[in-house]
Amino acid sequence: MDVLENCSHSEIRDAWRHYQTDPENRSARGRLGKPDAGAIRSFILRKRPKPQLVQPEPEEPKAPRVTAERASDIMREVGFDPTPGG
Q: What percent of the chain has pLDDT over 70?
């Protein structure tokens, strides 16, 4: 039963109900065969919705990096002289 540990109680009950009512699971004399856990699990997995692929969000354009010239201008604007000895 470890095969069914990730299945909910309602999923297992629904799969068992389906197994009992499916005529393919009965012998020629009408007797119900014993299901194995794999038969129940395969029905549950077929009934679950298929996973949807998630598209990645488009990346926002990055702000342009500050050039060395613009960095020098910014430092001069705040009163710092970036030149050697300045």
A: 93
